[in-house]
């Protein structure tokens, strides 16, 4: 079991709403590169991080 799979498995066991963002995705990296609370809140929504 890899690190990402382990974390996803553990988090899904304890939390109902969790957002996983893949840092390998160029769009995600761009969205998080110059982040502010105003931009981050709509991205995360009601999910736990």
Structure description:
- This protein has helices spanning 3-14, 26-33, 37-44.
- It is mostly helical.
- It has one domain (3-44).
- The relative contact order is 0.17.
Oligomer: single chain
How many strand elements?
A: 0
Count of individual domains: 1
Biggest beta sheet attributes: none
Report the order of strands and helices.
Answer: HHH
Average pLDDT figure: 85
Distance between the termini: 22 Å
What structural class should be given to the helix and strand makeup?
mainly alpha
What share of residues are in beta strands? Answer: under 5%
- Unreliable residue runs: none
Large-scale geometry: flat
H/I helix tally: 3
Assign a percent range to the helix content.
55-70%
Q: Specify Rg, calculated over alpha carbons.
A: 12 Å
Can you give keywords for this protein?
3 helices; mainly alpha; 49 residues; single chain
Describe this structure in a few short sentences.
This protein is mainly α and 49 residues long. It is built from three helices and no strands.
